[in-house]
Amino acid sequence: MRYAYYPGCSAHSTARDMHESCLAVSKALGIELNEIKGWTCCGASAAHQTDRKLAVSLASANLLLAKQMGMDMVVNCAACYNRSKTANYEIINSENVRKSVADSLGDTYDGSVPVRHFVEILLKDIGPVNLRKKIINPLRDLKVAAYYGCYLVRPSEVTNFDDPENPTIMESLIDAIGGTNVEWSGKVDCCGGMQNLTQTEITVRRSAAVIDMAQAAGAECIVVACPMCQVSLDVRQADMEKLLGRKYNMPVIYLTQLVGLALGLSPVELGFNKLMVNPAAVLNKVKAAA
Amino acid sequence: MTIRITKHKATEDFLKLVQEKADVNLSSCYQCKKCSMGCPVADLIKLPPSEVIRGLQLGAGTELLNTDLIWTCLSCETCYSRCPNQINFPAVIDALKSIALEKGAAKPAGDAPLFNRLFLNTVKSYGRVYELLAIAMYKLGTGNLKQDMGKFPMMLKKGKIAILPPSGANKDKMKRIFSKSAQNKGTEK
Ligand code: SF4
Ligand code: SF4
Fold first, then answer.
1. pLDDT given at position B187
2. What average pLDDT score do residues A98-112 get?
3. Are strands A143-146 and A115-117 parallel, antiparallel or unpaired?
4. How many CA atoms lie within 13 A of A188 on its CB side?
5. In this prediction, does ipTM exceed 0.90?
6. Which chain B residues are closer than 8 Å to A13 by Cβ?
7. Co-location of A74 and A169 in the same domain
8. Is the peptide bond preceding residue A155 cis, with omega within 30 degrees of 0?
9. CB of A186 within 8 A of CB of A145?
10. What is the pLDDT of residues A30-85, one digit of tens each?
């Protein structure tokens, strides 16, 4: 299992924990991630809000490098995943976009590199059965709310990830590692992450609504696969308390971190110390179960 | 809701321009309002998605460039995902944003255009975003220095904010891509 790996800019800042846990889990499962040399920013939301040509070209620059490596591109950041898949989609479906990207890059890219989220690698290439065999610390009784947010599932014609209204990929994996999925209706709601710095109150309110729903469903933690969601839900809990006048104490963990725990990897190696809301309750429970 | 529209010569081409930029055909919208029902910011704005589309269909012009949804939208794609006619409304929003930038429309709440410009400037220089620089410049630019300062030491300690600029990216490529961007001026300022 060899892939071209695109870490994305947040891997070296706000989402170090996402990146580190992804590498640790890959190593434990024998997944070979080859970091794309010289990779550049996918353009994130700043580029598509500014100029479409710029947005598609920035994402395509990396896809072209992956193509030269001859491997599928694996992305662990849901936002980069969405931008890269959008670039492929637009290039395949529009002659004009294809031409304008060729003009930007000075090279042609045909939209053909498969872009896959790390969660899809776990589900489809490793598979729940094989994953289960490697579990050392099953997450017995840990009640988990799997949260997808926007970028993985929408628009589904572009991402083709799972059912856009009721995805279940993460639940299958959580089930395989011995966790208990709670039933809840917030899993594809938006965390408001795009306004995190610009109109913060919108993000704080949207994210609080997500946590409230997970809490009401009995979740002990929320599991995410997107650094924008992680930062909104985790870092903003102090702001939620201030704005809404009630306590917030919900650990928000990357799926790769939780999988790593079940595989017996250490919390430090998985970046648990980088979470803002203390995940001690989760760690204690998993330890107790071991 | 009442939609007020001022018709004048320039508005006739506006719908065409938006449709071209966004690569959508808005005549297939039959105003079922599913987009607006699912929009997470609908209660914060004056015109929800279906009303913006109605406005465009009826010939509203550049006044739409100042409608609050444009810069309040979360790009969550719910509207697009639920539209029975597969109308890519987020692409309409992006088109309106880029026209607003070209025309120098009024600064919206939160000044996202400033943030986007600063973000992209660091990408142009380093090949990857230098968050610390983009955020610091944005805070200086908006005068909103106090917000989030309390979190800063903890985030630094946890390595959630990188102090040094990113390294390892192929920067040469950036120059070419940015110089070919139609809205180069949007990131040049
Ligand atoms: S969901 Fe589609 S068809 Fe219905 S109002 Fe919105 S854009 Fe129009
Ligand atoms: S993409 Fe924007 S307009 Fe569409 S539902 Fe989301 S917030 Fe509303």
1. 45
2. 96
3. unpaired
4. 22
5. yes
6. 131-132, 160-162
7. no
8. yes
9. yes
10. 999 999 999 999 999 999 999 999 999 999 999 999 999 999 999 999 999 999 99
pLDDT above 70 as % of chain A = 99
Residues A247 and A150 in one domain: yes
Q: Which residues of chain B have pLDDT under 70?
A: 1-12, 182-189
Torsion of CA B31, B37, B43, B49, to 10 degrees: -40
Written as six digits, the tokens of B120 are: 């992209």
Q: How far apart are CA A118 and CA A75, in angstroms?
A: 6
Regarding whether A264 and A235 lie in a shared domain, the answer is: yes
In short, whether B57's Cβ falls inside 6 Å of ligand 1 is no
The CATH code of the domain at B9-103 is 1.10.1060.10
Say if residue A137 is in the same domain as residue A281.
Answer: yes
Does B181 sit within 8 Å of A38, measured CB to CB? Answer: no
Query: A77, A62 in Cβ contact below 8 A?
Result: no
From CA A46, how far away is CA A54, in angstroms rounded? 10
pLDDT at A288: 67
**Which chain A residue shows the shortest CA-CA distance from B123?**
A41
Alpha carbon distance A26, A31 (integer Å): 5
Q: How far is C-alpha B37 from the chain's CA centre?
A: 21
Please name the residue of chain B whose CA is at the shortest distance from the CA of residue A206.
B40
Contact B18, B96 (CB under 8 A): yes
**Cα of B87 to ligand 1 centre, how many Å?**
7
How far is Cα A213 from Cα A207, in angstroms, rounded to an integer? 10
